[in-house]
């Protein structure tokens, strides 16, 4: 049983696709298939059930998976121990972010790369729910995500980037433009403009409405708060926006929501992370986030 076979096996399981696993491992897809077949011959059982839509674990595959992950983690830990003796940081760090945040991630990566050129860094974007799932199962090392003010994601540590209220926002000519506050029940009487399901802002809205016994009427969705503001500016409905954005635009009228909705953007990492590279990157990120010039941002 070779480490490469276990690595390909774990990649196929996590990606649920031989093609995506090959892209992740940067090899040709037939190479992944061949190594998985060799592994199945060695253990004497099929490990994966293949279909035209996806790939699923068999009972034998389910039994092997935690041991495969443990073996790969042990190899990474052994290499990290040797690297620490040699004062060399290498390996890889996978970063995920929401689409809208105030952290200069490119600058952070550039500064880190200058000090640790042997570390391979990948960066991707997704919604908060997906990013939290990828953090939990180890596909990401760190992520910028949106969480509720009373939310404590299990198994994660984090530092707060922003903590901000959410406002309703309408075009100046809208019939709500003379009001200053709006209850959730009143908000739900109007067509709403919001981020999609899975984002932090949408989760705050849906949870608050459910607690109040009302249901939001989502008429338009967009992938960033800036797009929400533009849709509201054109009179297409009531946008739910970070307060800093709703109140900084002269082409929108902001209304305070009652009860108040708040969201936090956080830099999160796995509490049990053993990668020296991921730990060092998070230390640098925390220093940047806590610097006075970091400034306010917007929950995505």
Automatic annotation (TrEMBL):
PROSITE patterns: HTH_LYSR (PS50931). InterPro entries: LysR_HTH_N (IPR000847), LysR_subst-bd (IPR005119), WH-like_DNA-bd_sf (IPR036388), WH_DNA-bd_sf (IPR036390). Pfam families: HTH_1, LysR_substrate. GO terms for molecular function: DNA binding; DNA-binding transcription factor activity. Keywords: Activator, DNA-binding, Transcription, Transcription regulation. Residues 1-58 form the HTH lysR-type domain. Coiled coil: none annotated. GO terms for cellular component: protein-DNA complex. Gene3D superfamilies: 3.40.190.290, Winged helix-like DNA-binding domain superfamily/Winged helix DNA-binding domain. Required for the induction the katG gene for catalase. Involved in the response to hydrogen peroxide. PANTHER family: HTH-TYPE TRANSCRIPTIONAL REGULATOR CYNR, TRANSCRIPTIONAL DUAL REGULATOR HCAR-RELATED. Belongs to the LysR transcriptional regulatory family. This is Probable hydrogen peroxide-inducible genes activator. It comes from Mycolicibacterium iranicum.
């Amino acid at each position: 049983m070779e480490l490469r076979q276990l690595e390909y096996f774990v990649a196929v399981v996590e990606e649920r696709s031989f093609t995506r696993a090959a892209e992740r491992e940067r090899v040709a897809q037939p190479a992944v298939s061949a190594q998985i077949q060799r592994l199945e011959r060695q253990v004497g059982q099929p490990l994966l059930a293949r279909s035209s839509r996806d790939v699923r674990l068999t009972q034998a595959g389910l039994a092997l998976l935690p041991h495969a992950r443990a073996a790969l983690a042990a190899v990474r830990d052994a290499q990290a121990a040797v690297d620490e003796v040699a004062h060399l940081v290498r390996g890889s760090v996978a970063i995920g972010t929401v689409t809208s945040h105030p952290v200069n991630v490119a600058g952070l990566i550039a500064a880190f790369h200058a000090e640790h050129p042997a570390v391979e860094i990948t960066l991707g974007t997704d919604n908060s729910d997906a990013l939290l799932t990828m953090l939990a199962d180890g596909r990401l090392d760190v992520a910028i995500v949106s969480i509720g003010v009373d939310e404590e994601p299990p198994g994660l540590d984090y530092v707060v980037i922003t903590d901000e209220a959410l406002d309703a926002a309408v075009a100046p000519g809208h019939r709500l433009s003379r009001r200053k506050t709006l209850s959730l029940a009143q908000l739900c009487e109007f067509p709403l403009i919001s981020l999609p399901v899975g984002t932090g802002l949408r989760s705050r809205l849906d949870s608050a409405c459910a607690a109040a016994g009302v249901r939001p009427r989502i008429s338009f969705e967009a992938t960033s708060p800036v797009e929400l503001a533009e849709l509201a500016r054109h009179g297409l409905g009531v946008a739910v926006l970070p307060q800093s954005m709703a109140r900084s635009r002269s082409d929108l009228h902001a209304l305070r929501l009652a009860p108040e909705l708040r969201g936090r953007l956080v830099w999160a990492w796995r509490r049990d992370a053993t990668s020296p590279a991921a730990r060092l990157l998070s230390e640098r990120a925390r220093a940047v986030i806590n610097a006075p010039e970091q400034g306010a941002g917007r929950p995505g």
